[in-house]
Design brief:
heterodimer; A: 384 residues; mainly beta; Immunoglobulin-like; 6-stranded antiparallel β-sheet; 5-stranded antiparallel β-sheet; B: 357 residues; transmembrane (chain A); Alpha-galactosidase NEW3 domain-containing protein (chain A); transmembrane helix (chain A); A-galactase_NEW3 (chain A); membrane (chain A)
Chain lengths: 384, 357
């Protein structure tokens, strides 16, 4: 017993002497009381959580009780001590046995690269010095990146950008997505095929987002910068997409005098001078002309197809409308379409069917014949 | 008729004495040229005046006018109801050809103006014509007129022209009465097209009533008794306006194709029935006048096929096209009127005229 006490005293003195030099994991405490963890210097990335199993060993012959305490590295660092699933402040260890305490340290996102020291005090068990090496410069922000931010196309094409939005903050974020497209353009964000206006991203997570840009019909040949943004009240990320418009497709179908109405006698023919015009800045090829006409009507075009139309040029086309003899008098719609591989144009012609005046004259002749007959009667019977 | 004889003598005397001062006193005679013309117009004027003053005509006119006022009331009520319903539901009332609608719509309490006109206007023609020849013959005035130096056919012609003038006056005054009352009540002025549509419809009405006048003239030439000719005229009138439609319906039911699915047979049968219907002058008139007053009517066929309706716009026809559409009907009415006049003319000219025959 005495020896033990003496040993204890000696150990205590030794501990006091070496106290300031203690860098080793197992701190010697009085009477074979030790504090132990295997990995004392760990590397971690910002946002990572380190977990230590700290063993308190009692080699002595009496129960040892110790208060646990630590000094946090910084305000952002989260530290937890637990045993058996509960937070713990004090540990008792039976003689000849050991107890495990779990220590978790979370590296904050916003942290500088470098070494950080941590010290766990366990009263009579001594103290444990831990070293954490933060391997990279931590950030506290959101990142928005595009695989290919520059795209080229025609004013009729759509531009699809694949974006990646990463949440490098400590908490789950909801981002509102917005694109500052020029007037007349439409921008649409989509996540896994569904159109979205906002996304939720877990901490340290990322989400693939598709942005589809549809240029306006009047987009001229130039480079457009479209700033996009993912933001909420606490964080935001910006990126700029580029859409390079090389030209526009424009096709116009009308009559030569711009009048979209015509008269036709039932069963008769009517020639309409149509004009197919390329109003865009790119060449149009394979322009074919088709029509939707009332039943039994025939619309023929001369020429039927146009191989190509240069920008700004127009090609005259003669449309011949052959109406059906059974048509009612009054108005019908004849739709005409000029269709190129790139663009199409419609023209709706209001065709007024007129009854043939021929039968009207027949009627006049009949009345004249009747009147002549009456005149004949006058001559025969009257004035005698 | 004594008055007529005196007036007949007047232009004739003027003719004999060159340009007598007696003729000057009559402003009417100034306008006349030639012997036949002046005597003819004197007879027309006398006939016209006699009709205007007759009780028969006044009573008839009163009935027709009342019927027309009733139909105007019905149409205006219908228009106002439609207006109220439209404002109630917040939609815009279709105001196209609103003016014409006064002639064709009705709230259901009374037939519309056109129906009334096609039904009652023939009565005016019959009433004017049924005793025009035979009563003169029975009273002996016919032979007295004929003893004057006038052409024999002028007598009949004068009867016809005076009757037609009277009918025109009545029809047009009724038509303009409706127009005026419509302007007053709905306050919606007619477009020129609407106005001409109404005028042409009124002209057709006049010719149609002229047809009935000629028929009754024919009867009055043919039958010695005024009562017989009046009855014959009314019989024809009732036949065409009441029974003819029923008979056509009976024929239609009897000849309906057994196979209801046979569209072609059904269409051709209906076309035949339509042809049968059009033998009736009343039906022709209804078609002609209603098409003119309803610009939306695009065809008079009983069927519009899918082929014809495909891509057709629901737009009204222009006035010319509407007229062209009913031109066959118009021609038929005019021709029937002319033919019935010719018949009465021949019948009259072949008859002997004896005093107190």
């Amino acid at each position: 017993m005495f020896k033990t006490v003496r040993n204890k005293m000696a150990a205590l003195a030794l501990a006091l002497c070496l106290g300031t030099l203690a860098v080793s994991a197992s701190a010697f405490a009085a009477g074979g009381v030790k504090l132990y963890t295997p990995y004392t210097s760990l590397s971690a990335a910002p946002g990572e959580t380190l977990s230590y199993d700290v063993e308190l060993i009692n080699d002595g012959d009496s129960i040892q009780t110790a208060d646990l305490s630590y000094e946090p590295i910084g305000t952002n660092w989260t530290t937890d001590l637990s045993a058996g699933g509960h937070p713990i402040r004090q540990v008792s260890v039976k003689p000849g046995e050991s107890q495990n305490v779990n220590l978790t340290i979370q590296v904050p996102y916003e942290v500088n690269k470098g070494d950080y020291a941590f010290r766990l005090n366990a009263g009579t068990f001594g103290a444990l010095n831990l070293k954490i090496n933060v391997t990279e410069q931590g950030t506290y922000k959101t990142e928005l990146t595009a695989e290919q931010p520059n795209m080229q196309g025609n004013s009729d094409s759509t531009f699809t950008y694949n974006l990646t939005l990463s949440n490098r903050t400590a908490s789950k974020q909801q981002y509102a997505l917005s694109a500052d497209a020029p007037d007349g353009w439409t921008a649409q964000f989509a996540v896994s095929g569904s159109n979205v206006t906002s996304v939720d991203i877990d901490p340290n997570g990322s989400q693939a987002i598709t942005l589809t840009l549809t240029p306006s019909d009047k987009a001229t040949a130039q480079t457009y910068d479209i700033p996009i943004q993912a933001s909420n009240s606490s964080t935001n990320a910006k990126a700029t997409m580029q859409a390079v418009i090389t030209g526009t497709y424009g096709l116009n179908l009308t009559t030569s005098d711009q009048r979209l109405s015509a008269d036709v006698t039932a069963g008769g023919k009517k020639n309409l001078e149509m004009v197919v015009q390329n109003t865009g800045s790119s060449e149009l090829s394979n322009v074919s002309l088709t029509s939707t006409a009332p039943t039994d009507w025939e619309v023929t075009f001369e020429p039927k197809t146009i191989a190509s139309i240069k920008p700004g040029e127009s090609v005259p086309v003669t449309a011949t409308i052959q109406s059906s003899g059974k048509s009612l008098s009054g108005d019908y719609v004849v739709g005409m379409t000029a269709q190129s591989s790139e663009k199409s144009a419609d023209a709706a012609i209001r065709v007024t069917v007129k009854t043939s005046v021929f039968w009207g004259w027949i009627g006049v002749v009949i009345i004249a014949a009747v009147l002549a007959g009456i005149y004949g009667l006058f001559r025969k019977y009257g004035r005698r | 008729m004594s008055g007529l004889l005196e007036r007949l003598r007047l232009p004739l005397a003027r003719l004999r004495s060159g340009d007598g001062p007696a003729a000057r006193t009559s402003g009417f005679a100034d306008r006349e040229r030639g012997p036949g013309g002046s005597a003819f117009w004197v007879m027309v004027q006398k006939e016209f005046g006699d009709h205007i003053r007759s009780w028969r005509f006044i009573i008839l006119l009163a009935i027709v006018t009342l019927a027309c006022i009733g139909s105007i009331y019905a149409s205006i009520t219908a228009l106002k109801d439609a207006q109220e319903a439209a404002t109630g539901s917040g939609t815009e009332i279709d105001s196209s050809f609103l003016f014409l609608k006064m002639f064709t719509v009705s709230d259901g309490s009374l037939p519309n103006f056109l129906t009334f006109l096609s039904f009652l206007a023939p009565l005016i023609g019959i009433a004017i014509g049924f005793d025009s020849i035979n009563s003169e013959r029975n009273k002996g005035t016919l032979s007295r007129v004929m003893s004057q130096p006038v052409y024999r056919d002028d007598f009949l012609n004068a009867k016809f022209v005076a009757g037609l003038l009277l009918i025109a006056v009545v029809v047009f005054s009724l038509g303009f009465l409706v127009m005026g009352m419509g302007l007053l009540t709905i306050g919606y002025p007619p477009t020129p097209e609407e106005f001409w549509r109404v005028v042409v419809a009124l002209v057709i009405t006049t010719v149609y009533v002229g047809l009935w006048l000629n028929l009754s003239l024919l009867f009055s030439v043919r039958f010695k008794q005024a009562a017989t000719s009046a009855l014959s005229g009314i019989a024809v009138w009732i036949f065409f306006l009441v029974f003819y439609g029923m008979i056509v319906n009976l024929v239609s039911n009897a000849t309906a194709p057994g196979d209801a699915a046979d569209a072609a047979a059904y269409v051709s049968q209906q076309n035949w029935m339509m042809l049968l219907q059009r033998l009736s002058p009343a039906y022709l008139f209804q078609e002609a006048a209603s098409t003119l007053l309803l610009p939306d009517v695009r065809t008079l066929n009983p069927f519009v096929t899918q082929d014809q309706a495909y891509l057709a716009l629901n737009a009204p026809l222009s006035f010319g096209q509407s007229l062209l559409l009913v031109w066959p009907q118009v021609v038929a009415i005019v021709a029937e009127t002319a033919v019935s006049f010719a018949a009465s003319y021949v019948a009259f000219m072949r008859q002997e005229i004896r005093s107190r025959s």
